[in-house]
Structure formats: C-alpha cells, structure tokens
Amino acid sequence: MTISIQTAVAVEFPSFSLLKGKGFFRGKAEDLLIVKIATDREQAVYQLASALRAALDQEGIGVEHDGRYNRVTS
Question: What is the C-alpha separation between 49 and 9, in angstroms, rounded?
C-alpha cells in the first residue's frame, strides 16, 4: 500500500482511533490493527474497508457495526 492505514482513514474520516493487538486467524497468531471510526457514514466505512482489503492483499477485513460483525471480501 502506498499510503499508511492511518493516512487512508484520515483522508476520509476526521475522528478515529487505532488500536494495535494480537489476533488469531485460522488458528494462527497475527498482528492486528483495530480502527474505530466515529461516523454515521456506514457506506463510506465499507468502501474504505474494501479499498484497504485490496491494498493489503487480504482475503477479508472485518467491520463491526451496531454490534454485528461483517466480513468485507470484495
């Protein structure tokens, strides 16, 4: 990715938090970055998740909204 995740989020959303941690995917530990965005623009969040997924060459990126987890795969 030519720009950082922080920059990509900041371009679209002025208020957000980044939290680093450790996650597990298919039984394997990996670094994790949680991005919490203060917005009511749900579609823009999904568009950003899709762009980040492609840029990072990920199978999917999880988005939690209103207590529900959704996996963005396209």
Answer: 10
